[in-house]
Write a structure and sequence with these properties.
Blueprint lengths: L1 E6 L2 H10 L3 E4 L12 H10 L4 E4 L11 H16 L4 E4 L10 H11 L4 E3 L9 H11 L3 E4 L10 H11 L4 E4 L7 H5 L7 E3 L3 E5 L20 E5 L1 H11 L1
Parallel strand pairs: 1-2, 1-8, 2-3, 3-4, 4-5, 5-6, 6-7
Antiparallel strand pairs: 9-10
Helix pairs in contact: 3-4
């Protein structure tokens, strides 16, 4: 079973491999749920890491209905980041009616030139999940990241089990979104679970000795007091359940 961790900092990416994570999903902007990371970040991590690096392709936060300009940027980001060694890509595009945008996804998959593509949790807000699974299989996606159409894996557990059964060997259903180690035995009741997506995130105290008392550049109250990283003990807890 593969453990994939989404990472939003260079520190978390480096530690993820050190702690045994099999693959990382490299993102920027944790507050928006993940956006396209910098080319410099990918290039540096490709020099340092041996594990695969899948790259989030998302030009902004908010919905997953993109303008032609945004789609062109997404296509170019895939081309640029592939040239810098990205091992795979993570994206999702919906139409205005809540269905998978076939044409947009086809263009992006073609830009990936054979690199594996994951359809992310835009899937969870699709109008019809069973139909979406068949669409994504036909388009050539390799996996779907999903919390079961709910806010968390815990809430969407029953749906995820249904998706695993429908997908069979045709596409990987990768649960993610509030994943916890104790979810693994429940998700793998029928021995169909192949991958799990879990941030295993934690925060460390900032090393800055100076904290400005008046100026706040973020709505997050502790933004300048702590740094997002990854928790070794949480990673170990997942591996124990994975067997």
């Amino acid at each position: 079973m593969v453990l994939e961790a989404p990472v939003f900092t260079i520190e978390a990416a480096l530690l993820a491999e050190q702690f045994g994570v099999h693959r990382i999903e490299l993102c920027s902007d944790f507050g928006e749920g993940g956006e396209t990371p910098s080319a410099g970040a990918l290039l540096y991590l490709k020099e340092k890491l041996r594990i695969p690096i899948f790259v989030m392709i998302r030009p902004r936060g908010g919905d997953f209905v993109y303008t032609p300009d945004e789609l062109e940027v997404m296509k170019r980001d895939i081309q640029i980041l592939k040239s810098f060694g990205a091992d795979g890509f993570v994206f999702g595009v919906l139409d205005q009616d809540g269905h998978v945008d076939r044409e947009a996804c086809k263009v992006l998959i073609e830009a990936a030139e054979g690199s594996p593509c994951t359809f992310h949790r835009a899937f969870d807000i699709c109008r019809n999940k069973k139909e979406a699974i068949e669409t994504l299989i036909s388009l050539g996606f390799k996996r779907i990241l999903t919390s079961g159409g709910k806010n968390t894996v815990a809430e969407g557990m029953t749906n995820i089990l249904s998706y695993l059964e429908q997908a069979g060997e045709r596409i990987i259903i990768m649960p993610g979104g509030g994943s916890k180690p104790e979810h693994i035995p429940l998700l793998n009741e029928e021995n169909m679970l192949k991958e799990i997506h879990a941030s295993c995130k934690s925060y460390r105290q900032s090393e800055s000795k100076f904290v400005h008392t008046d100026v706040r550049l973020s709505k997050e109250p502790k933004a300048f007091e702590r740094v997002l990283t990854i928790d070794k003990h949480l990673v170990e807890a997942f591996f124990k359940k994975m067997g």
